[in-house]
Fold this protein.
Amino acid sequence: MAAVSASMLPLLFFARASGLVVAALVLTWALAFKSSFLPHSSSQEDLIYAVLHPLLMVIGFIIISGEAILVHRWLPGSRNLKKSVHLCLQGLALSSGIFGIWTKFHGIDGVVANFYSLHSWMGLICVSLFGAQWMMGFLSFWHRAEVRMTRVRVLPWHIFLGLYTYGLAVATAETGLLEKLTFLQTRRNVYKSCPESMVVNSLGLGLALLSGFVIFAAVSPKSHVPVNKPKCLSS
């Protein structure tokens, strides 16, 4: 059973703390400023879908997928256990991402009106890449013996695409925050120094810090404690 190295503990702590701050900020934004998510008066169902989108994409997709990346660093136990937990967390994140995009198909302006921006295009690409990554990991996990050599060759690409997709998800969220805040400030006269603007800007900064800690933890080399073998005493 491998223990977490002392050098990784501060990094894992800051990654978890950043995740909690991001979750608190997106919950505050979604629940305290609900009227900002629908520019016109609409039904309660439309409001729920509009609020669910940032919650699912930030907490369900970004934070949980980040935790899945960190599993290899903090979870004690066998390698197969870590892979199982990693796969389950990534599956939960993928489900949240798919459902988060699905909520936009129920927008009051229709499907096309909700998929015209850079944010929407990046989101579709990100979730598609994430789904392909998860499927590759799923097949590799359940067919270890048959694809052992293939898995060894594919593993570096799997790691690269996993981190790239995670970074792309954070970048997509940042474009979404910028798009929403720009709309609020130009069309609804939301001041740049108002509480809502501060919450959204803090959320963007928190996401940037979170992604930095998670990616740094993922690429940091594992430290191995040397084991000193007992010397034979000569008689």
User: Anything to note?
Assistant: The mean pLDDT is 84. The chain has one domain: 9-219. Residues 25 and 199 are 6 Å apart (CA to CA).
